[in-house]
Amino acid sequence: MTTKTTFSIPYGKQNITQDDINAVVETLQADFLTQGPKIDEFESKFADYVGSKYAVAVSNGTAALHLCALALNVNEKSKVITTPITFAASANCIKYCGGEVVFVDIDPKTSLIDLDKVEELLKSNPKGTFEGMIPVDFMGLPVNLEKARKLADEYGLWIIEDACHAPGGYFIDSQNRKQSCGNGAYADLAIFSFHPVKHIASGEGGMITTSDKALYDKLVKLRTHGITKNPELLQENLPSNGGWYYEMQELGYNYRIPDILAALGISQLSRANEMMQKRQEIAGRYDEAFKDTKICFFQYPREGKNKIFHAYHLYVIQTENRKGLYDYLRENNIFAQVHYIPVHTMPYYQSLGYKKGDFPSAESYYESCLSLPMYPTLTEEEQNFVIEKVLSFI
Q1: Given this model, what pLDDT does residue 90 score?
Q2: Is 301 part of any domain?
Q3: Where would you tag: which of 135, 136, 176, 316 has the fewest CB atoms within 10 A of its CB?
Q4: Are 60 and 193 in contact (CB under 8 A)?
Q5: What does the pLDDT read at residue 301?
């Protein structure tokens, strides 16, 4: 096997093709750089891809989360449940609106929020204590939103599905129906990111999906300063008002995505199934390579009644000497990463009353987790080198 390399192998990487470049150049040469037709096209095609009724393109995934919280009227009286194993934005969006973040520990078997613990929390408090929950499809593994929806309905909660890791992922529900991440069947809103390491890369960008028309209309306004020109939504729709007339109906933000990034997103989306297949192949080779080792890696059922389709944004292993393996891989130009430092241990959240030791499963996961390279253009030769180095270390 290969023992030396000139490779530089990151944990994630965008794949920009000539078709992507052509799509952006064509838009640069067209009439609109922003607020043009590429936005509607991207939204329509993305909604079709995930199976939702509506989609709203925005400037990034964090903006998407913030707009969702605004649309659901999160305020200083709101208490919202989420997981500590996620990027900080999943929790921060509640703080942006003045609300209180309530973390619930993860299921150590999946690394996803433990819905049994969520139920325990809800049962131990009066109904109405909590307004909503933000489950995260961490690594690309879909949360059981059917179970989450049952809890939400019983206790009067809304759901924002953070599906940034999982476009193309799905699970089979109790009625044997395929439920794609972000399709709006069980969550009120779902959000996606188009950061370069994500499945669909537009540089920056995000998308909100929903099947609720009222929420969709509100999101479209909030994305653009709270302003609308839609005749159906105007409060003063008079014959004397010309085509210029608009109303700012609430305090919104400029969270628009430009047409040039939407054009790149559309082009990337056209290859989404092809790129997903490559992620599955890479995950399969890792699974096979590590099956007889002491490495703990998250392998999930792919067949049968409870079939889950993992989108594999990340391929995470757990190892006793994480720091040693991390350093060893870097010495060999393999830039593995750690996802994530538990959010509740961040100084900001500790200043709000959280402390280390609050969520032992999340903290135990963090102590040993390491994300190996996972992106569609990772070659078999490069992956074999990664595998060789991991095995030689352990």
Answers
A1: 98
A2: yes
A3: 176
A4: yes
A5: 54
Beta strands in the chain (DSSP E): 9-10, 54-58, 79-82, 100-103, 132-134, 158-162, 170-172, 178-180, 189-193, 206-210, 227-228, 247-248, 296-297, 308-309, 315-318, 334-335, 369-372
Q: Total domain count for the chain?
A: 1
Residue-range definition of the domain harbouring residue 260: 9-104+112-393
Distance CA 113, CA 134 (A): 9
Instruction: Evaluate whether residue 2 is within a structural domain.
Output: no
Q: Mean pLDDT throughout 365-394?
A: 97
- Residue 81 in this model has a pLDDT that exceeds 50: yes
The per-residue pLDDT of the chain, averaged, comes to 95
Rounded-to-integer distance, Cα 341 and Cα 326, Å: 15
Pairing of strands 100-103, 79-82: parallel
42 SS3 class:
helix
Tokens of 103: 């973390």
Asked whether residue 209 is assigned to any structural domain, the reply reads yes
Amino acid sitting at position 386? V
Q: Is the peptide bond before 245 cis (omega within 30 degrees of 0)?
A: no
> CATH number of the domain that 80 lies in?
3.40.640.10
Q: How many CA atoms lie within 13 A of 280 on its CB side?
A: 15
Q: 333: Cβ–Cβ under 8 A, 6 or more apart, which residues?
A: 5, 6, 7, 8, 9
